[in-house]
Every structure is written in structure tokens, then in C-alpha cells.
Amino acid sequence: MYIDIISAVPDLLHSPFEHSIMKRAKEKQLLTVEVHNLRQFTPYKQGQIDDYQFGGGAGMVMMPEPLAIAIETLQKTKQYDEIIYMTPDGKSFNQKTANRLSLYQNLLIICGHYKGIDERIREQFVTMELSIGDYVLSGGELAAAVVVDAIGRLIPGVLNDETSALFDSFQDSMLAPPVYTRPADFRGSKVPEVLLCGDPKKIAEWRHNESIRRTEERRPDLL
Prior knowledge:
The longest helix is centred in the C-terminal third of the chain and has 19 residues, at 200-218. This protein folds into two domains: 2-152, 3-Layer(aba) Sandwich (Alpha/beta knot); 169-222, tRNA(m1g37)methyltransferase, domain 2 (Trp Operon Repressor, Chain A), CATH 1.10.1270.20. The model has no long low-confidence stretch (mean pLDDT 93). The chain is built from six helices and nine strands. By secondary structure, the chain is α/β, with parallel strands linked by helices.
């Protein structure tokens, strides 16, 4: 999979993809993430990419020309399955969307900044708008990193045990059950006996029931 990211602050995205699972995905050549500095595509002097908004009001707006040039330049090298804009008013990003996006070959993510991007870019180029929560960040870079991480770990071959992702929270519209590891007795608190019984059927049943219980307690809206 190839993911291109257009950013006004590309340095924010260097670290998230250089460690842990994302690093492993890149080393296995299963995922390629390229971050493009929007200022390299601007036709304006001194790397200008933003301007005052028409009609007045506080905050600057990312100009359409630099973004259009960046998108069209990248489109010359590959055809994108989705052009995604990270924005607070986008569709809430969830596991179902991550699953679907992980099946694609080429994605382009646009990181908003300042007061956002000129609406005409959204109308003419963007095919999907995503939000990672009902709050506002300084820019879309951290949100883009979240999306890439959620997608990347689902690519076959990235995780050492590919079945692991199948039992994550939200995969079956429920939260994951509690998990335990050694020691079996930690300061007087013991691991549930069923997990030590060696019976896969009983363990699976316990985990399913615990998923339901935890979801009812913490996220009843999912049921």
C-alpha cells in the first residue's frame, strides 16, 4: 500500500512512522508512507500557502492553488482510491472505515491547518472527509498519523500474528475482553481460572461474554 500525505508542517509526521508496527510495515515493504511539504508546490513567493478569508473573520485559510498543484502533481504518478481530507467536520473515523481503507492500494491524505482549506478543494478533489473526534487540533497531521496507524496494522503480513487484529475492539461492534499475562497471581489478584483451563471453547465463550459485559458497561451505544 502507498499513502501520500500533504502537510504544511511535515516534520510533525516523521516520528510516528519510524517506530514499532509502522516501522515494521515499511521494512517489510508492505506500506510506503511519503509526506510532502505543501510549500514545495506553491507558486507564491516565500512559500506562502495561506491567506485571509473572504468576508473577514479570525484565522487564515489554506489557499487552493498550492493544494491543487500538489494533488495534480501526485496524481501524475498514481491513481488514488481515495483522496482524504482530515477535518473536524468530517465523518467519524472508525474500525469499519479502517478495514475498508486497508484494502486499497493508493491513498492521499490532506492535512488541514489554520482555519482549514479553501472549500473549492474539498468540492473538486476530496473524495472522503474524516474526523478522529469531536474536538479541534492545531492541524490534521496527528489525525492523519492515527488513520495511517489504524490502516497499516491491518495490512496482511504487518502483524506477527495476523489474527490479532481480528479480535481488537470494535471489529465485531464490541469492545475487546480483558486480557491477562504472567504471573497468574499478582499481589493476590488472580487470573480467571477459565483462562488456565486449556479448553478453547470455554475460553472463547468467556471472552465473548466479557466483551458483551464490557461493552454494555462502557459503550452501550455500540450494541
